Amino acid sequence: MRMLTTPYWTTRSLASDVSSMFAEMDRLAKVYDERDFSPACEIVEADNHFYMSMDLPGLKKEDVKIDITENVLTVSGERKRETNSSDSQKFQLFERRYGYFKRCFTLPSSVNTSQVEARYENGVLELYIPKLDAAKPRQIQIQTGKTGIFERLLGNKKSDDIKDVNVQ
Q: In CATH, what number is assigned to the domain containing residue 61?
């Protein structure tokens, strides 16, 4: 008895097979790509400052560089994989990210870049970025009567305006 079967190439396209093959190769390449290290970061804004924290596990303070140029904050560094020269050990699973990283953040013009402070402890980089005094919110008191700048600017303008109007 002879069975009628549909050929393989008519049920699946060669393009989809090649596409899925490249997608799988790309996925596998990312697992082993040492340049794919981008540390996680959080930024919180308060009334008088910004607080930034960045996770940098496995790095030493000396491995991290912080620069501010024209209101661009740059945090860079490198996390290197420690290799053991022993040939008896072979990697079975490689999930950690290693390599050079560089994160750039554009700061608002309202920050005081000359007073930024940094601290590194337990694999977490913390940055305190103060705002300029002009950028900090302040409460404005409402005045009554003719006081302050209004007295000097307006004087008795309202009463002068009333006298100048001629009714005909």
A: 2.60.40.790
